[in-house]
Amino acid sequence: VAKRAGKSSYRLFEPAMHAGVLARLELRTGLARAIDADELELHYQPVVRLSDGSTAGFEALMRWQHPERGLVSPADFIPIAEETGMIVPMGRWALHEAAAHLRALDGDYRMNVNLSAKQLQDPGLVEDVRAAIAGLDPSRFVLELTESMVMDDADHAVDQLTALKALGIKLALDDFGTGHSSLGYLSRLPVDILKLDRAFLAGDEPNLIAAVVSLGHALSLEVVAEGIEEDEQWHALRALGCQYGQGFLFSKPLTAADSLAAVAWSLCSERMPSELLVCHLG
Ligand code: C2E
Ligand code: MG
Ligand code: MG
Ligand code: MG
């Protein structure tokens, strides 16, 4: 590119780009110490039953509490962590952290954890997962993967996924309908759950959504719609028979403490007569 740009190759050193490169470098070195410095956190977004909005489980979403920059979003640091390979220890940390949180939650919830391509290629993954979920009912633990993660080496990926399934955990195909979706992969992968990318909802194409929900059901998959922000979307999806959803309409990702409080509160309101609740609220 620089060659073709000829004399205008000075563009490469425009201040804005320079700042961008510096910022990435800085994030890169920062990430290397983030785990040990205790700067990573998981936030937990409820996955709800669309029938009544009750919480069926949570998706663990990584956050980086940077000492100077504050909360950094995964869109900014996950790609860097993947480039450097740091995602493998970070992902291992997330597996253990999310499983510990699942043990701390009072109730029969599920916990979803996102996996990266590098982790799927890591020969230690199955042992990491086995260690993380020790003592838990494995069917309450869900790993989320995307089709693009599988495409580089589909045979190896399918072997890894089969070994993970043998632990008794569930697998979800995340962001379905974006990028390189292919029905061929969908039938080859031993997944249990299909997560419809939120672009489907944003695209406002009811026929397409209906088709994908019935595709999932035809393959005996549970279907989760991502990115529900409006009542109308909830009601339309429920009418289509989509069982689960996730989105800001129900809840943003919560800190660990807030997710515990939300669960305690819902247990409390189920068990107590409403007059008592009023009392407790003062
Ligand atoms: P994802 O796995 O598809 O996660 C869903 C993303 O959508 C989350 O963004 C969530 O906050 C956001 N979201 C949920 N409901 C709504 C909504 O109603 N509207 C909108 N606009 N957004 C909504 P987040 O937390 O920024 O994570 C972005 C992506 O980063 C994730 O997409 C996932 O691919 C990746 N990621 C997050 N945590 C981890 C992790 O622990 N490991 C790996 N490998 N990737 C992670
Ligand atoms: Mg996900
Ligand atoms: Mg997703
Ligand atoms: Mg995603």
Automatic annotation (TrEMBL):
Coiled coil: none annotated. Residues 24-267 form the EAL domain. It is found in: Cytoplasm. Catalyzes the transfer of endogenously produced octanoic acid from octanoyl-acyl-carrier-protein onto the lipoyl domains of lipoate-dependent enzymes. Lipoyl-ACP can also act as a substrate although octanoyl-ACP is likely to be the physiological substrate. Belongs to the LipB family. In the reaction, the free carboxyl group of octanoic acid is attached via an amide linkage to the epsilon-amino group of a specific lysine residue of lipoyl domains of lipoate-dependent enzymes. This is Octanoyltransferase. It comes from Solirubrobacter deserti. The gene is lipB. The chain holds residues 580 to 861 of 1077 of the full protein.
